[in-house]
Amino acid sequence: xNTSKQQEKRSTLRGFTLIEMVxxxxxxxILLTVFVPAITGYMTRSRLNAANSNAKVLxxxxxxxxxxxxFTDRSAAESALYGANSTGRLIIYSPEFSSAMTVTPFNAxxxxxxxQPGARLNQDTSSSFRGRLGRLFxxxxxxxxLLVIQDYQVRAAFCATTASTDYIGAYPTKxxxxxxxxxxxxxxxxxxxxxxxxxxxLESYISSAWNTTFSFT
Length: 217
Prior knowledge:
Strand content: 5-15%
Number of helices: 5
Largest sheet: 5 strands, antiparallel
């Protein structure tokens, strides 16, 4: 009796047919084509939004420091930013997970010669540029960033998680759903002032953001 019931029950059970499996796989494929690009776009926007947010904080922090330096430099023989020169342009670059900065087109490593532009920026003191930036922008040692400063004004700020990523945040003009300044450009390559195309991209960006003509020459 029990054996016949079990056999009858097994006879009523069946698996998916080939057609049903094909239909299920087709539905899954359609869903993937819809959701994968949406998820990818969301991740891209999220990365850019985070980078843009960091760039804004960096911009405001650096501008606060520049204004403080400008005020104290009025009565000083040598500028904290520009040494013996009262004005100038500085490109300050810092790689990720580093407390060192490079200043171009002027090298910041001048030893005791503090008359040179950018000579004091890397001084390990609480009153130096880096010391003040560390208090205002806590992520400054964790991410890669680049600043363009002219006449005590921050012209542009750029941030990225690493020097090689395409997702570059910027301020005052944001990058929205766009990878970096241009195709195949990264903060690491842009910081190399020997590459004319990168400087041209920076000049174009700053000119557009500030509605003026900006040139490093």
